[in-house]
Amino acid sequence: MSAVQRSNRSAVISRLGEIGVVPVVTIDRSEQAADLGAALLSGGIPCVEVTFRTAAAAGAVEKMTVTHPDLQVGAGTVLSVAQARQAVDAGARFLMSPVVDLEVVEWCGSNGVLIVPGVMSPTEIGRAVRCGVELVKLFPAEVAGGTDALRSFAPVFPHVRYVPTGGIDEQNLSRYLEVPSVVACGGSWLAPRELIADGDFDRIEQRAIEAASIVRGVRGTR
Ligand code: 3PG
Description:
Layout (H helix, E strand, L loop, with lengths): L2 H17 L1 E5 L7 H11 L3 E5 L5 H11 L4 E5 L4 H10 L3 E3 L5 H10 L2 E3 L1 E2 L2 H9 L4 E4 L7 H8 L7 E2 L10 H5 L7 E3 L5 H5 L3 H19 L3
Parallel strand pairs: 1-2, 1-9, 2-3, 3-4, 4-5, 6-7, 7-8
Helix pairs in contact: 2-3, 2-10, 3-4
Bound molecules: 3-phosphoglyceric acid (3PG).
């Protein structure tokens, strides 16, 4: 990986840290991607993880990337190199996965793409670290022990940082953001599949405004 690729990955991590929240979205119709991106942007959460669980995912990533260059668009549920390639070709700036897949991690490393693999235990964190990964997704965060688990991992893995995801919403977001090793929190509560399907972008924007306010309250960065 070149120095430029490395600095691009660091820049994306810094940006995710400033934003503090990664909305996890599942889109059934890519035509809705531009409106969804606009709602998140105007709500103050300029970031999104489009899960590769629907046929519309790659098209949605491409539409958001083209329509909203200021939006940090990533892909989620990336389980294979084929999906990773498809997501990056569509314009994804980072990839999230529920697992540590060695082939995916290696492909991302060779191509300078930020991959955030999913972990749930010290053994899995250790595996990710051995692959050269600096940022992991604690998933499913609440089931894996939540903030207690994150604080317990810190002395053992002092350089590892996290994007906890799974069971986080506006009720417990601040608690996670207070953990020093947390870069940002992922979750579907801002833009659940039903709200997107209903085209209720006003509510999504409102939830983004609330989330951005919680991030400001904890970190005072914005
Ligand atoms: C995901 O879909 O990646 C996570 O499960 C999101 O979890 P949540 O729906 O509990 O936010």
